[in-house]
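Preliminary data (for renewal application), zinc ion complex.
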Amino acid sequence: METVSTPPTVWSQETALKEKRDVWQALKRGFRGRCPRCGEGKLFRAFLKVDNKCPVCALDFTPHRADDLPAYLVIVIVGHIMVPLALWIEINYSPPVALQLAIYLPATLLASLLLLQPVKGAVVGLQWALRMHGFDEQNPTE
Ligand SMILES: [Zn+2]
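Predicted structure:
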């Protein structure tokens, strides 16, 4: 099993003076699938495969550790849309169960697939903005 070890963050006056990164801007850029720093380069080289570095500003994307967080967030988002919708439709119209399943299951799958990449991009953007997982040490002259 491979273990990931990052050096401990040493808090000093120098680290406190680093340029602040706009969290919301990084989230939005990542959500659009763009580099969180420049907003121009593509973040993904495949559906859920984050590229190694930004083709425009050469920001190294390899420190990101999105792991399972995007999937959990998509479950929360889609669940909070589909469950109230299904309950509202059931209470007001009570269509046959087979019809409900024929609509809800594909709709849930489609919504999940459509949201997965943007949410993963937003997570990577958030990690960059918060200088997590080694996004801090690189590119010191930004
Ligand atoms: Zn970039």
